[in-house]
Amino acid sequence: MNGKITTSTALCLCALATAPGASAGHGFYLGATAGAGDVMATDLRQRGAVHLGPGKLPIDAEGPTEHRTRVHLGSLQLGYDFAPWQTAQSPWGITPALELEGIYIDKHSPTGNMPVHPAFLGTQYVTVPTRAGLLMGNAVLTFRTPWAESIFPVLGVGAGAAFVSIRGADSANPGEPGINHFNSDPDASDTALALQLRAGLNIKLGANLHLLTEYRYLTIDATRYTFGATDYPGEHQPTDRWRLDMARQIYHLMTVGIHYRF
């Protein structure tokens, strides 16, 4: 009886080991992707104060950016594919992977339309030329199906840190033409949590080369920046340094890339 059990166990192990893709494809890979998409509208809030003699006039302007702003991005990945979860009897299989990814989102310049409190000051228009660098840890699942031998659906999730940089911000008011209220220091940055969901296709081009096309839903948590005071001697009253809050950013992205497996 023990001999039969041992023989059956050995046959099961052999079936797993010889299943299509069960021993192939696991190991390290390098990848590079590029893409484009949109960052959706978000809320901006500018706060500070204008110096008026012995006192100060508090300023609070808040409003949304335009509906969406076009963005471009690139990324690099270093990952490891684990052995597939699959038996010889099933055409279905799953290959799990862990991945470290660096993402760069190029300059994009949303503008906030921000009514000011007190209301007699009108509307502030704040443009924030933004770039973001992200370091993400991803978990990825690649699915083998009975319908294609070289095209595999992919799902992934990721979490990490986003370094968001604003360079050359402009805070303008039609009532004060030619004035950038951040002029003494229009640059600032902050770091926030980033999360992403990925869904797409992995297309096998050769023994080691794969084409990857994906949709990504990426979010960056709320960030806060401090810009310089308004500095136009003789032309504008002095001010405090300005604080700018940016609400959560949501990106819808499409990417295409290559993975090389070792």
UniProtKB/TrEMBL annotation:
Residues 9-221 form the Outer membrane protein beta-barrel domain. The keyword Signal applies. Residues 1-24 form the signal peptide. Gene3D superfamilies: 2.40.160.20. This is Outer membrane protein beta-barrel domain-containing protein. Keywords: Signal. Transmembrane segments: none annotated. The keyword Signal applies.
